[in-house]
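Bug #77: duplicate submission created two jobs. Keeping one. Sequence:
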Amino acid sequence: MARRQKAKPMLESLELSSGESVPAARPINGMANGLASGITNGVANGVTSPPSEDAPAIGTDAPGIPSADEATKAFYDEMWRNYGHLDAVSPAAFHRRRMIVELAQKHAPNALRILDVGCGRGELLRELSNVFPGAAIFGADVSEQSLVISREQNPTFELFELNLTHPTFERQYKSRVAQFDLVVCSEVLEHIENDRLAASHLATLIAPSGVAIVTVPGGRLTRFDVSIGHLRSYTAESLTTLLRGAAFDVDRAFAWGFPFHSLYRLAVGVASLLTSAPRPNEQAKVKQTSSLMADALSFGYTLFGKSLKPLYYLNSSLRGGQIFGVAKVSRSART
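Kept job's structure:
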């Protein structure tokens, strides 16, 4: 087996062109390989330390080392604890949900069973419930922390754990296979190393004639994007290619968000740079920095969000840093 090429110790720039991936930046590595700085170090520094060549591989039975699933869940539990509340004041999240609901009304107007994969705190669940009052609403997430919060806020919806890259997905979630008329997967695939496998598993959840609505980030990756686990950005073309490779027929894929979403992302990127990066093993500073970043971003979201929220209605549907896709499972894949 070829020896893994040693990764650079730090990235001079995390500004990558649209559609490119982050080199050697998997957010779970800091935990899965037992690195000293722990999970929030990746948040504070914007990148996580790559695994050493002598470190056990993720998923091994080495003592004290969590599996990839455990490390991933722990990472996103931490993300939801620190940053989940920002969705409530983010104009990007508000308008992304608005557009998802509009696409759902247009492409799946008669949906009776709706699933949001990566439901987070459940804001989209409530909005879909308002528009589809007769539908059964389901939410799923890999993060137990997000599900705990969402259950408190959405006691009438059925919520469950879902790992899109589970090695025996259809057996693990057999009661969910082909059960949903509409499946939304918003801002999830960019976090998953094997996004094609995740998209393929997503397709198995959709009932015959059902619809998937997928959103992913486009544009350039920022330091903050990497710190919250983004592994890549997309274009409308690359999302189309991904979905087609996962047995979908793509009805529509498009970019949206110029110029105001682009301006907002720039403001968030600047806010994320206001904190200093702790050194490894500085656990107290790690937690302090993570808190400072969350505070800085809250300030930026609140300040710029209120002014940009109405302007977002003027964003272009031909270009921008937000990518949408609408697709159905290919008939050939069901035979």
